[in-house]
Amino acid sequence: MSETARRLPASASEPLDLPERFSDVIEDLHVLRLPMVTRFRGITEREVAVFAGPAGWAEFSPFVEYDTAEASRWLRAALEFSGLTPPLTGGRSGAAQNSGTEAAGGTEAAPASSSQARTVTETVDVNGTLPACPPSEVETILARYGHVGTVKAKVAERGIDSLDDDLARLREFRRLFPDTTLRLDANAGYGPDDALTACEEFAAFDLQYFEQPVPGVEQLAELRRELERRDLPIVLAADESIRKAEDPLRVAELGAAEVIIVKVQPLGGIGPALDVITASGLPAVVSSALESSVGLAAGAELAARLPRTDSSRDLLGERVACGLGTARLFTTDLVDDEDALKPVDGAIPVRRITPDPDRVQSLAVDPGRFEWWVKRFEDCWAHLRSANRFS
């Protein structure tokens, strides 16, 4: 951890004033390039920025196409996890105060502070991730995860034009893993009519849930009503409608989904994510934003604090398999394999990660890309200062 890092003088309940320049508190910003095993989300390498604070290392890695306002939430999360700002929540998760509600580890949920709260479980379960790939590659890709009880398969890479390819891949998956729990994720890749066509085909694969088949909360709500009318046994989960919506609670208000997918960086931190889960009252699954092990550590901490309710047990099982096994999608990480948050027997540990100095040096982006990220950091920092509060 940098000796120059210090906690910013603010409280969780008051407006937060940031110094004019981020370099006043962060002098060890590093931008790194992580090559990927296979194309995922349209990219073959991932750029991430990491820095240290009083609580440890944190990651800032919004995708390059995101504008400043959206990317600023990711910076807010990194500042919270590094301990440079207070946790952004009112204390204990409200859901955990209700009778019969527990944290994921079977104990009362801990305070949401990422820097001070105790860890309520030593490990969290994770799912394997199957990207869009030829059927011949299914077994090889999933072998990287070892034994996992749940797999999430990406579909709709080219919208409805991918359906035949998706079905061929899923048939091969079910041939190889007939008893493994299967989830699908379309990343809002279908229009309403195409989503219904796809759901009619996918219903044969015994899905746990289908994540964000269409964009927009209203479209998702309409699709759910139509699925019920047609008696198609598909549970809908909301991802983009939570993390990219102005009002993430609208999903619950409209009954658009039965499960929500929460990600630490897009929601602005562990505290805000817990608040969304509590207010929605819906079962939640924590997922990664394609982060290095440094970023995954924040997701693991949130996953360890998930409130457990009867509905979450009914839909997701006693231990929720979260989408935090994505370190397997990189050919290398910021630490060696032994220390990385890569799943072993379907679980990852809940612990912080300190990057290996040699890897920080060898994975560094070229000077031009570093300057691009510094400018982005500055823009997001200024955006947060102008708001004068994390809200």
Q: What do these coordinates show?
A:
The chain has 391 residues and is of the alpha/beta class. It folds into two domains: 22-87 and 356-387, Enolase-like, N-terminal domain (Enolase-like, domain 1); 94-349, TIM Barrel (Alpha-Beta Barrel). It contains 14 helices and 15 strands. It has helices spanning 68-82, 94-97, 138-143, 163-176, 192-202, 217-229, 240-243, 250-254, 264-267, 270-280, 293-304, 310-316, 357-362, 367-387, and strands at 30-40, 43-53, 56-60, 102-103, 123-125, 128-130, 150-154, 157-160, 181-185, 207-211, 236-238, 259-262, 284-286, 307-308, 347-349. The strands form four sheets. A seven-stranded parallel β-sheet has the order 6-7-9-10-11-12-13. Strands 1-2-3 form a three-stranded antiparallel β-sheet, with helices on both faces. A two-stranded antiparallel sheet has the order 4-14. α5 (192-202) links the parallel β9 and β10 (207-211). The longest helix has 21 residues, at 367-387. The protein is globular.
